[in-house]
Amino acid sequence: MPLIKEEHHHRHLDDIKKIINDSKIGEKPKQTAIAIFGRLAQAEATVHGKDPDDIHFHEVGAMDSIVDIVSAAIGFDALGIEKVYCSALAVGGGQVKAAHGIMPVPAPATAELLKGIPTVGGPIDKELLTPTGAAILTTVAENFGPIPPMTIEATGYGAGTLDSEHVPNVVRLILGRSAEESSATTDRVCLIETNIDDSTGEIIANAMDKLLSAGALDVFTTPIIMKQTRPAVQLTVICQTADIAKMEEIIFQSGITFGVRRQIVERSKLAREFVTVTTRFGNIKVKVGRWADRIVNAKPEFADCVKAAQEHNTSVKDVMQAAIAEFKKVK
Fold this sequence. Notes:
Elements: H1 13-21, H2 27-48, H3 63-78, E1 85-86, E2 89-90, E3 95-98, E4 101-104, H4 108-113, E5 119-120, H5 131-140, E6 143-144, E7 150-159, E8 170-178, E9 185-196, H6 201-213, E10 218-225, E11 231-239, H7 244-253, E12 261-269, E13 271-279, E14 282-291, E15 294-300, H8 302-312, H9 316-330
Parallel strand pairs: 1-6, 2-5
Antiparallel strand pairs: 3-4, 7-8, 9-11, 9-12, 10-11, 13-14, 14-15
Helix pairs in contact: 1-2, 2-3, 2-5, 8-9
């Protein structure tokens, strides 16, 4: 049975949601497809200065684009993919004809969707990444960058209709299993650094607070000696790749530097869980780290310990020791 019986090129988000919800595809692909369209609607709304529910889709509201997005959602579910990694996105160049006239590449909605995503121009003056493609990739991909450590099990290729002498018009999907030898998990984050020698501690501290509030995974400073033996500090920010633009904006608007260095790095993390233990000071959460199913680290949540210490007029150390003692009884 076809997903839709007739084609209307101008639909609102609610119309598309109804088409998807009324279809007979699985619940998970439905949620993925609706999330992709929601992201696309938000991008179009930002570009046009409207509410996402008021956006009038044009090309992406056509039947083939709905099928593209829904088919991608079904495919990811059918393959049992748990995590998606994507290379930096090549957007092409030049101009493209759209419903609103001639647009530069990447198109405005595409550019909005790519905020914080690693991209490259070219290698030809054609539109290589449409808003539909950008919405799919930026919704399902967890990280953008090199291929992660993996054992390749299968590859697939999809070819487009554009023929170019300079670049093959294909998209490649590589399916594999994580090559990790332990129970540690890996992901990719961005490391942003800058050297500061002409700012006050108060201003730097304020910038650090803003970075953490904006979602930075970690922010810290390191004393360094710069040229002409000037004492300075190095500000380091660790963040998700999707938050790169936001972090750099905070740094630059704080007026503490004229430039930053950034690199995508891979990190390993212990498999972790939280266990709540009951002590004479109340319930305390304990973060537990496992390596190959063996507990190698356990640490009481400091905020819980501080709160309990204040309520019982005792030291934080006493609460932490009590939490660890109770944890050892139940582990």
